[in-house]
Model the fold of this input.
Amino acid sequence: MKNILAIISDPANSKEFIKYTYQMAKELNYSPHFLYIQDPTISAMSSGAIRPGANPIGTEIETDRKNAIRLIQEKIRKVRKELSNDVLFNFNVETGFVVNVINQYISSKKAEMVVLEGRDKTGAWTFDASNSDIIQKINCPGWMIPYRSGYDPYHKIVYATDYNETDVNTLKNLVNLTGRFSPEITALHISDSIDFEEKTKEKGFIEIVRKELEYDKIQVKTIVDKGKKGPGENINNYATDNGANLIVLLKENVNFIEKIFKPEQTKKVLKTAKLPVLVYQEQ
Done:
C-alpha cells in the first residue's frame, strides 16, 4: 500500500489533524505515517519545550523530542477512542531540515504524498510561509489541510487550469485518486477577458479532455476576472460558492502558484475559505 506522510507541526494541537489524515488516507487507500520534525533552524519548537532564541541542541532538543512523543501518543489515544481501538498509527520524530527530511522519505519510497496542516489558530484556512515553501520544494504531491478541519469525502473538486496539455495528465491522476467518490470535477480557468483566442484554447482543451479521459463528470468553466481579484481569490470564491470540498493545483505553472501562495495574497484570499488544497507536481 502507498504511504501518505503527514507532518505534525504542533503536537499539542494535533488531534484533529491526525484524525483527518487517517480518515482521508484510508478512503484513498493509502497508509498514513505521521512525522514530527525538529528543525534546528527554528529557534522555538512548536511543542513549547524550547525557549525562544535558545539553541535547539543537546538536552533541549531531547526534551522537545520526548515531549512531542508524549503529546502525539496522547492525541492518538483520543483519536482511537473516537474511531476504533483497533486503529494502528505509525509515527516518528526526526531531527533535520524539514524539506530534506521529507524528500528523504520520498526518495526512499517511504512516502508518495505529503500532508501539511494550516497553522492559523483563529480557525481561518491559511498556511504560513514555511508550509508554502515546503510545497514548492518537495518532490511529490502535497496536501494542505485547514486547521482543525473535519474530514469530508471529496465529492466536488475544483481544478485550476491554464488549458495546458499537462493538466490532462494531472486530471487523469486526480480521477484515479478520487474515483471511488465519483466526484464532480470542474476545470476552472481564470481569464482577463474571453476573446477569440481564449475561446479557441478552451475548445481545444475540452476536446483533449474528452478524448483522453474516460470520465464523464468533468466540466470546463472560464471566469472573467473583471475586478482584478487575482487567481487565488477567484478560485476560492468559486469553490466555496459551488460547494466544492477540494481545490487542486498543478505546480508546473510556477507563477500561478506563487500568486496564490505569497503571504499577502494568502491572508487576503484565505481569510474565510476552509477548503483543502492538493498540489500536484509536473509529470
Notes: The CA atoms of residues 35 and 92 lie 5 Å apart. Confidence is low (pLDDT under 50) at residues 43-53, 122-127, 265-272. The two ends are 21 Å apart (CA to CA).
